[in-house]
Amino acid sequence: MVQTTNETKHKRSIIYGALLLTLSVICIVMTIIFTYVSNRANEQIEGIREDYRAVAERRDQKVAQLAGQVTDLQKKLDVLPDRTADKTANKVKEVVKEDEAK
User: Fold this and answer.
1) DSSP character string of 58-100
2) Which of 20, 63, 86, 101 is the most exposed place for a label (fewest CB within 10 A)?
3) What does the alpha-carbon distance between residue 39 and residue 47 come to, in Å, rounded to a whole number?
4) How far apart are CA 92 and CA 102, in angstroms?
5) Per-residue pLDDT tens digits of the chain, which is 102 residues long
C-alpha cells in the first residue's frame, strides 16, 4: 500500500511537470508569435509613415509654389494703386491747367 501511494504521487508529479512544461512551451510560442506580429505591424506602420511623408512633401512643395504666386500677385496689386493714383493725379493736373488756361 505504501508503494501504491508513492507511485501515485510520482505519477501526479510527472503529470504536473508535463502540464507545466506544456504551459511554458505555449507561453514561449505565444511570445514568438507576438514578437513576429508586432514586428510586422511596425513595418506596416513605417510604410504608412513613409507614404504620408511623401504626401506631406508634395503638399509643402505645392504650398511653397502657391505662396510664391501669391507674393507675385500681391506685388502686382501693390503697384496698381500707385499707377492709378499717378494717372488720376496727372489727369487732375491736366484739367486744372485747362481751367487755368481759360
Assistant:
1) HHHHHHHHHHHHHHHHHHHHHHHHHHHHHHHHHHHHHHHHHHH
2) 101
3) 12
4) 15
5) 456 788 888 999 999 999 999 999 999 999 999 999 999 999 999 999 999 999 999 999 999 999 999 998 888 877 777 667 777 777 777 777 777 776
